User: Fold this.
Amino acid sequence: MPGGPAYVIVGASLAGAKAAETLRDEGFDGTIVLVGEEMERPYERPPLSKDYLLGKAAKSSIYVHEEGWYAAHDVDLLLGTTVTAIDRSGSRIELADGSAITYDRLLLTPGASPRRLDVPGGDLGGVRYLRTAGDSERLGAALADAGQVVIVGAGWIGLEVAAAAREQGCEVTVVEPEPGALLRSIGPEMGETFADLHRAHGVTFRFGEAVIELRGSGGRVAAAVTSTGAELPADLVVVGIGAMPNTALATLAGLEVENGVIVDAALRTSDEAIYAAGDVANAFHPLLRRRVRVEHWANALNGGPAAARSMLGQQVSYDRVPYFYSDQYELSMETCGLPEPGRYDQVVYRGNRESLEFIAFWLADGAVVAGMNVNVWDVTDDIQALIRSGRQVEIARLTDPDVPLTDV
Ligand SMILES: Cc1cc2nc3c(=O)[nH]c(=O)nc-3n(C[C@H](O)[C@H](O)[C@H](O)COP(=O)(O)OP(=O)(O)OC[C@H]3O[C@@H](n4cnc5c(N)ncnc54)[C@H](O)[C@@H]3O)c2cc1C
Assistant:
């Protein structure tokens, strides 16, 4: 193992693995330790609710690096190892087996955990969550056998699982307390497009209703009861009601924590030797001029390397336009920006919404704040440039497919 300074990464995650890769790419020749509580080496989660869930993608395709990469790059990968505490005064992390590892710089990439459905019957068999590869394998097997599936929550995970369940021939009901799908992430306009797509594929939505109880027999779930008193038969319940950043270690260590670990634009926490990236980081975003905690793949992919450069003392201002993607049935999309309700005043479209080939733009005061390209490709750079510019645009040109996005 190399000597020199020790850079330790908590969370053998996408962000953590990409940070380790960047440290070596940038010539860091000290010790790198990547600690993860899962038994798997770092992998990507998006396939877990898509092809991998349906058994269409091989396990080898989900990993961030080949198995031999860690040893070949002198990255000490400790799997099945839970970090239990950060001892800041001793500059060391403590592990579940009682041992400790000292660090010169520490990166926190522990991700997030599914929010639990806290209702009577919530721990019955057949009630499932989706975060890990193992969750995906078990859910995939359960979907293959299930008849009636109730999905709690019409967010990204709920809807992607709904699409997979329909593909497996299950009857699917999605229960969501909000009045529409994906409301908090993309607002009602495009949320309705996704709801319509799912309805066209036979999904039933129960908006404005919450699951308040799960009933079962023989320890297994048999029905979901909603706030209107409806009892929905279910042999499988999938809970997708959001994720909570894994902040326990940071909180215990006295770092500044609020909806994630607070970091500056250089991804540095309130302790200058400790950094955070990925789902756990609530980072000041120089372009948006506010803190954002982005739970998306691209933020882990790019945030890990940015944190690594920052740890090496390089000037870093992490200002990537947030980006995420989703695939559901025949709809594949990419979204740039954060089109949350309250942050835009208008949605306009370029292209054909009926044939699901269009770009939706969210605007605030005449400037583009977000864009979603649906089955239209190679436009994200142009959309990001529009968002980045912050300038007012002419709606007629923005919505005219004959005007190049670069000339809007
Ligand atoms: C099913 C699913 C589908 C998704 N689909 C999409 C998509 O289509 N598009 C998109 O943009 N994003 C998607 N995402 C989001 C994306 O996968 C996440 O944003 C990304 O995985 C975050 O990566 P991360 O590096 O922050 O941490 P994670 O991937 O969450 O990894 C964190 C790791 O740290 C470990 N850990 C936590 N605490 C400790 C500890 N104390 N000690 C040791 N290890 C610890 C965890 O066990 C975990 O292995 C999806 C997420 C899920 C769950």
Remarks:
- The longest helix spans residues 183-200.
- Residues 10-15, 35-38, 45-46, 48-49, 82-83, 109-112, 130-131, 157, 246, 249, 278-280, 295-298, 300, 324-326 surround flavin-adenine dinucleotide (CB under 6 Å).
- DSSP finds nine helices and 26 strands in the chain.
- The first strand starts at residue 6 and ends at 10.
